[in-house]
């Protein structure tokens, strides 16, 4: 499961680059690059290429086909994965997509095609930035999987490349499209919570069995726990809260502090489930089992982000937002507004069905029948395809991707420095001030 020499060199180079001042790097190009804020897609039904059709990529492909996505090319180093995806496209009535399976760099042939408008990436994290940059440099828009990119240098790379090529780069943060998340966003934007004060998100998910597997994500994701110690997977919990607070749209991340518990969960699981002599016994786990990161925003608000995938714990993204007039907390969903009937106790979110997003109102039942995290995967892809087909800006842009992903390297740096505060780069270079709120969750018509 170890990284190859080439991947190790890439990791080392990225780490060394972060030692340099990204602030100066940004200043050098700021004058020559134009913002991607509000830039619409060219109006068309996009021709799509997919890189990575393992478990997650195949799930996305099924939902993409259900939204009438046009898939012309597929790349995966596992030929059986690629052929399975090819058959899914054919069964959906599409023309058989061309396959690219000849080694780690087969994706370079896919992105170089002149008949694609969009490339979707669902590969191990270490490849996201490289593939996204290559696709944009060949004139393709990009959708890539969470948690986005791994280093601050890569955050700046995707921002600069997007601005230089005028191609969008969107993180596929499906949790932003959940029923509760889109409903609460409408409540926030309607002013029901008053002045926002704090939010909380998390990724609390027992992944021990999956990450110790000899297939799927077990082949690479556990390796991340041997390399870094911080908040490795923040965006499922952070993305919705960032949308509630208008991050990159009137407010912005200012600085971050982070701390991790000791490591115990992986070592205990290995002791109970891994036989003697297995190569896994040579691994040393650096990632603390529980990480908590605190973000301060430019408006003085606070965001708590938690991470634990190493212990027995019920699944939760917490998904909380509070203001001067009320508070919402998820898992289970409950809400309270000042002065509501019944006194100071939470009530059900069912009492606010009138705030259901138009996207869920029209397409929710279809999404739930398809599966994919309760329907949010389909609604995400449907909405993003609609943006393309209608020629409007994407729901989430490269600045959202860079900001949310930056929490990973910043948390690692903070932990390593005894929880010292880390300044969050201003990827928008001040353009977040006065920017309009997100329209995510609004209904868009499609050409399909």
SSE map:
Elements: H1 5-19, H2 22-30, E1 47-51, H3 55-66, E2 70-75, H4 79-91, E3 98-100, H5 107-111, E4 118-121, H6 128-137, E5 141-144, H7 152-165, E6 169-171, H8 179-189, E7 196-204, H9 208-211, H10 221-227, H11 235-245, E8 253-260, H12 265-273, E9 291-297, E10 302-308, E11 320-323, E12 326-329, E13 334-337, H13 358-370, H14 376-390, H15 398-416, E14 422-423
Parallel strand pairs: 1-2, 1-4, 2-3, 4-5, 5-6, 7-10
Antiparallel strand pairs: 7-11, 8-9, 8-14, 9-10, 11-12, 12-13
Characterize the structure shown:
The strands form two sheets. The protein has an eight-stranded mixed beta sheet. A six-stranded parallel beta sheet has the order 3-2-1-4-5-6, with helices on both faces. 46% of the residues are buried. Helices cover 37% and strands 16% of the residues. The model is unreliable at 8-28 (pLDDT under 50). It is globular. Helix 6 (128-137) runs parallel beside helix 7 (152-165), helix 7 runs antiparallel to helix 15 and helix 13 (358-370) packs across helix 14. Strand 9 (291-297) and strand 10 (302-308) form a beta hairpin. It has two domains: 42-172, NAD(P)-binding Rossmann-like Domain (Rossmann fold, 3-Layer(aba) Sandwich), CATH 3.40.50.720; 176-357 and 398-423, 2-Layer Sandwich (Dihydrodipicolinate Reductase, domain 2), CATH 3.30.360. The chain has 448 residues and is of the alpha/beta class.
């Amino acid at each position: 499961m170890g990284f190859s020499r080439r991947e190790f060199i890439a990791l080392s180079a990225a780490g060394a680059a972060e030692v340099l001042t990204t602030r100066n790097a940004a200043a050098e190009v700021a004058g020559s690059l134009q913002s991607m804020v509000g830039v619409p897609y060219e109006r068309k039904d996009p021709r799509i290429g997919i890189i990575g059709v393992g478990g997650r990529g195949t799930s996305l492909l099924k939902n993409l086909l259900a939204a009438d996505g046009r898939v012309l090319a597929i790349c995966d180093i596992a030929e059986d994965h690629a052929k399975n995806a090819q058959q899914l496209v054919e069964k959906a009535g599409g023309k058989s997509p061309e396959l690219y399976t000849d080694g780690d760099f087969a994706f370079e042939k896919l992105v170089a095609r002149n008949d694609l408008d969009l490339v979707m990436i669902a590969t191990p994290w270490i490849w996201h930035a490289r593939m996204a940059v290559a696709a944009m440099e060949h004139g393709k828009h990009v959708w890539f999987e969470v948690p986005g990119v791994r280093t601050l240098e890569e955050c700046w790379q995707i921002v600069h490349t997007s601005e230089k090529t005028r191609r969008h780069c969107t993180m596929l943060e499906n949790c932003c499209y959940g029923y509760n998340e889109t409903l609460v966003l409408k409540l926030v934007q309607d002013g029901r919570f008053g002045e926002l004060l704090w939010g909380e998100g998390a990724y609390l998910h027992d992944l021990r069995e999956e990450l110790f597997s000899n297939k799927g994500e077990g082949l690479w994701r556990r390796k991340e726990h041997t390399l870094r110690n911080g908040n490795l997977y923040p965006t499922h919990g952070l993305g919705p809260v960032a949308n509630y607070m208008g991050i990159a749209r009137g407010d912005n991340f200012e600085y971050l502090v982070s701390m991790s518990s000791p490591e115990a969960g992986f070592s205990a699981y290995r002791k109970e489930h891994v036989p003697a002599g297995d190569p896994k016994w040579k691994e040393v786990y650096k990632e603390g089992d529980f990480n908590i990161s605190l973000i301060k925003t430019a408006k003085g608000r606070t965001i708590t982000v938690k991470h634990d995938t190493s212990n027995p714990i019920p699944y939760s993204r917490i998904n909380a937002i509070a203001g001067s007039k009320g508070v919402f907390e998820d898992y289970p969903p409950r809400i309270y507004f000042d002065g509501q009937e019944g006194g100071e106790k939470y009530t059900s979110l069912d009492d606010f069905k009138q705030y259901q997003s138009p996207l869920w109102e029209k397409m929710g039942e279809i999404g739930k029948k398809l599966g994919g995290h309760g329907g949010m995967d389909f609604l995400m892809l449907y909405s993003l395809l609609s943006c393309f087909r209608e020629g409007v800006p994407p729901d989430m842009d490269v600045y959202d991707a860079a900001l949310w992903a930056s929490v990973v390297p910043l948390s690692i740096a903070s932990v390593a420095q005894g929880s010292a505060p880390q300044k969050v780069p201003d990827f928008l270079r001040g353009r977040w001030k006065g920017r309009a709120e997100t329209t995510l969750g609004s209904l868009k018509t499609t050409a399909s």
